[in-house]
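Ticket opened by: R.M.
Priority: normal
Category: complex prediction / small molecule

The reporter submitted a protein together with zinc ion and asked that the result be attached to this ticket for the collaborator who will pick it up next week. Submitted input follows.
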Amino acid sequence: FMNWDKPILTDSGGFQVFSLTSLRKIKEEGVYFNSHIDGHKIFMGPEESMQIQSNLASTIAMAFDECPSSLATREYIQNSVDRTKRWLYRCKAEMQRLNSLPDTINPNQMLFGINQGGTFADIRIEHAKAISELDLDGYALGGLAVGETHEEMYHIIEETVPYLPQNKPTYLMGVGTPANILEAVDRGVDFFDCVYPSRNGRHGHVYTNHGKLNLFNAKFELDERPIEEGCGCPACKNYSRAYIRHLLKAKEMLGMRLCVLHNLYFYNTMMEEIREAIEEHRYASYKKAKLEGFEMKEEN
Ligand SMILES: [Zn+2]
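Result attached by the on-call engineer:
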């Protein structure tokens, strides 16, 4: 249906199930939960998650894990991480089985393991060491950006990443702002997913190299400039802030679409710049200049 001939990543459903706090029950075999729509009982375990992702034939499938609350106790997190580890062995075995079947749509589907452990660095490190031994295609840090401070998150990334394989991609799930990405890359993270560019775009919040703008702000009412001077995105090449603001105020869908287009273009361009800066061994100065730009407010 998507007509998308490029890589696709699917999540395991773990995070989504665990966000239904009052509706779910976690057991060794998997998770029982009630549909938030009609209440009917559903079971999902590691095998079910791998089967669904195999049917979707994504490029990368994520392991089925538990994402515990940021408020959970150390004891809870330790038990949860131990179970997540046992689930990972089951995910790997099931993925291998599925990939070997003759009618599997994508028999080269990759599996990424997910590191958990809340903000307990020692639990994170032990878990990272254990899952690294499975020689998976890549590894993710999960359960971050769920309520802890940015400094706590950076600290955990810094502590954990050295214990994940350096020759495999490292993925920080659900993060984040442009500044979060710059800081995480500095600590060894390779890739990201986040709703910010699209969700914020739908609310008229657009990212620029001089910080974020809220296009609903009255000061943009007669502003003939594009969202960002020099931006090559379809929104900036064709439309003014004033016009996009008008579309947003009039609740015209095009306003949201243009903001989302610009934001995705902005994030994608930043990732290109990051790769280039790393290759040219000037990441530290690139990051510094970029972060300083975000702090600078543009002149009106
Ligand atoms: Zn633009």
